[in-house]
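Suppose you are handed a protein chain with no further information: no name, no annotation, nothing but its sequence. What can you learn? This example shows the usual starting point.
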Amino acid sequence: MNDVVTEPVRRTPVVHDTDVLVVGSGPSGLAAALAAARCGVEVTLLERFGCFGGNITAVGVEGFAWYRHEATVEAGGIGWEFEQRAKAMGAAVPESQSLSYELDSEGFKLVADALVQEAGVHPMLHRQFVAPILEGGAIAGVITESKAGREAIRARRVIDATGDADVAHRAGAPTRKTPLEAMQAVSVIFHLAGVDKAAFMAEVGANPSTYSDWSSGEWTAETTGKEDDLFSPFLKTPFEKAKQAGLIAADLNTIGGTWGAVHDSGELTYMNLVHMPGCDGTDPDSLTRFEMEGRRQAMLAIEALRRFAPGCEAARLRNFGMTLGVRDTRKIDAAYNLTEADVRNQARFADSIGIYPEFIDGYGVLVLPTTGRYLQVPYRALLPAKVDNLLVAGRAIGGDRIAHAATRNMSCCAVTGQAAGVAAALSVKSSNSLNGIDTEALQRALVRQEVRIA
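A reasonable first move is to predict its three-dimensional structure. Written in structure tokens, the prediction is:
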């Protein structure tokens, strides 16, 4: 359509001014805000939903560290703190396939609230980022829309933690979007009630699944081999039987996946069973179609579990996540773009801002960190081109597709978020540009925040 509407020139009120503004409050944004505030600057955390936590709370992805095994090397820092604080507040249970705790998606809303309040972060929920405020080649804040109308927030440094590089893209920084046909599938996450835990776990024990089961039927997973015999909470048989019974169409290959934890109360949580390719997470029409289709498929999955999964005969839907789980859209063209060789071969960088265990999950590759291997993440991967005063954290940092399959994971997003927060704070306090920041000073500050950088 070529039809357009010309909007009148308008004066937008400035409702807030801050040192560091973080846009998006998922694992990267929440970590960024806490890290910056703990460095002693004024921090504001902007979020479009009514809770902090992003993928954990709004989507319902509860397996924060499901990669962890006995020899896994951890990054420490705020990501580790998320898990420990959730345990202390009764918002975590042991995870089924690893030496980690699964975060309760509802309880973590309270964990995030407490962390934000204790750090002195200024919370701004229910506001949608719509445009950057640009002064020359630098970002100076953002415009938001909400029930209060259109408002401006001024900031000396901005961190884009939107996951889709929304701020960087609209500010004119070069970004790359994965072609639609190559994008990782989106997921509808849901949780069940009414499950007979004893019967369900008896079936799991009698017929345990492993990661090798992922590479059957429509799915394939490239592993190193060491992953294949490890236990995985993978569900496939009920859906195969549902196809044979005509409950699920024979050509519908998007249902199948993992469960998270089964509770004494009869809740079966983090049902990651619907994986739909072809959705563009930056296109609202595409998101609309896939939200509705995903819920339809989730109900097919639940009916299949009722009929063909022992212990699930009385299962019922407890809740859906508030939004789709999107894995893959835009990434910045950063000062340094991580490569497949980096994440597969334990890359080391002089400007390391944190380490991440050798965990790759995406594009048909699954590598679990069971042997102590890890890579370093460089500060340069957070630096977008052409826009000053802006850092990008989370799954939109610079990197190729296999690098993205590593750094998109929530625990790595917390690593890049914490580094972005500390860097932004140091930049404000020293009046140095983000490009010219003293990386050794940044590393020392991160170590003080209990981050492992080497």
